[in-house]
Amino acid sequence: MPRGSTISRPVGVPSPDAPRLELQRALNRLTGGRLKALTLTANRRTILSVRPGDRSQLAVRIHGCFVGAPLEVLEAVAAFLESKKGSDRSREALRVIRRHFAAENGDAKARARRAAFRTEGVAVDLRQVADDLNERYFAGRLTVSITWGRGTGTTHPCRRRTRTSSLQLGSYSYEDNLIRLHRVLDQPGVPRHVIEAVVYHELLHADLPPVERNGRRFFHTPEFHRRERLFRHLDKANRWIQEHLPELLRERQASRARRRRA
Questions:
Q1: What is the pTM of this model?
Q2: Residue 9 confidence (pLDDT)
Q3: Beta bridge pairs of residue 39
Q4: What is the distance between the alpha carbons of residues 185 and 36, in angstroms, rounded to a whole number?
C-alpha cells in the first residue's frame, strides 16, 4: 500500500459505532446538548451511570439494550440524568428504565424463575404483605415481584449476624426487580410484623437506587435509614430477630439437611 494512503469504508456500509452515535445524538437533543460522551456497556449490575464531576457536561455509561429504544424510554433516561437523585422524577424515570432493561434482557431461564414464584406461606401471603406496605408507605407506586426463596441476582448485603454466622433474611434483585424472603421466616411462630419489616426494607431498595461514590455503590444511605425508621414496628421487629437469630440459623441448617436427603 502506498505511504500515506488510508483505508476508506465502502459506500453504504455503516460504521460499527453508528448505533452508539445515534443514541448519543438522541440523548444529546433530549438533554439540551449536555451530553459530552456516551459509552455502551454490557454491565447488568449498573444499567446507567454518570461519571462524577461537572453535571453541566454529562459523561454517561449505559447498557447497550438502550440502542433503538422507544422515545418514551429515552425521555426517561434524559429525565433521570437531569433530575436530582432520590427525587420523585428520578424514581419514576428509573422505573421506566428498569422495565425496558428487564424486557430487553428477559430469557427462558428468567421466565422459568418467574413461573416458580411462591408467595403463599404457612401463615402469610407475601403478595398481600407487599401490596399493603406499598399502599401505606409508597402511595402504591411500586411494581415489584416477591417470593419465598433464596436470594439471587444483584443484591445488597443485608445480613443478620452472630459472632460465628450470618443470615440474609431478604434480598432485592435489581436485575429481576424481585424481592426474596428466606424460607426460615415461613413459620407459624414468626410474627407478621417481623415479615413486614423485612419486606419493607426490600421495598425501600426497590424505591431508592444505590448511590455511587468513587466507583463504590452505597445501598444504605442516610436517606435510606431515615425512611426505614418510618416503619412503626422496626424496633420491635429488630429485637425479635436478634433474640431468635440462633433458632433461625438452626432452622436454616435443618432445611439444608432436608434438601440433601430429598
A1: 0.58
A2: 47
A3: 61
A4: 49
